[in-house]
Amino acid sequence: GQQVMQIPQYQHVQEGEDFTTYCNSSTTLSNIQWYKQRPGGHPVFLIQLVKSGEVKKQKRLTFQFGEAKKNSSLHITATQTTDVGTYFCAVPSGGGADGLTFGKGTHLIIQP
Amino acid sequence: GAVVSQHPSRVICKSGTSVKIECRSLDFQATTMFWYRQFPKKSLMLMATSNEGSKATYEQGVEKDKFLINHASLTLSTLTVTSAHPEDSSFYICSARGRVRLAGSHSYEQYFGPGTRLTVT
Prior knowledge:
The complex is a heterodimer of chains A (112) and B (121). By secondary structure, chain A is mostly beta strands. Helices cover 0% and strands 52% of the residues of chain A. Chain A contains no helices and eleven strands. In chain A, a hairpin with a 2-residue loop joins strand 6 and strand 7. The termini of chain A are far apart. Chain B is mostly beta strands and 121 residues long. In chain B, strands 2, 4, 5, 6, 9, 12 and 13 form a seven-stranded mixed β-sheet that branches. Chain B has a four-stranded antiparallel β-sheet with strand order 1-3-8-7, with no helix packed on it. A two-stranded antiparallel ribbon of chain B has the order 10-11. At the A-B interface, strand 5 and strand 10 of A face strand 5, strand 9 and strand 12 of B.
């Protein structure tokens, strides 16, 4: 099935610093989605990227989809304590279904 | 809109018993629902795809006789963990995909339930 590599696994930042997480696939993706999961919570959809080279912004969050549609990144500018959580990328698992294959996630830890 | 509920939120059961988890789409019709499991500090793993009125499609390595899925209506899917053992203890999360009307458009994204934490003793 489809696989996606996500790095880093953990990221410690000082409040106010920037944060980036990356996802890579060995195959071309039809789309990639990003989710945020707060500690003890469930994944919450952030965005879906579909087009080659696409860049989307949500306030302090910037999402990019690579030109080859094999990689993506999520960048947070000037992190705040409310950004704490695990950020997952997810790609279609293939096989004709719409299930998702999730990356391992990046745990964002913010030190005030 | 686009709310998915799960019941129960937590359950503790004894080894050998069966546990049923419900997943409901509250304000939209979900043609497809998905079941995931998540171990502590790990990622979500897709277990199966549940289509209304048809048999579920299981991912490789997931025992269909152990994890029974029923999708009897467009708003309800159930996952039954049969003869549960301690290694089945996990966080089970469902998601629902359906045509959701948003302001000025429609969305086909997946909406996740709050999860069910199963502990088998």
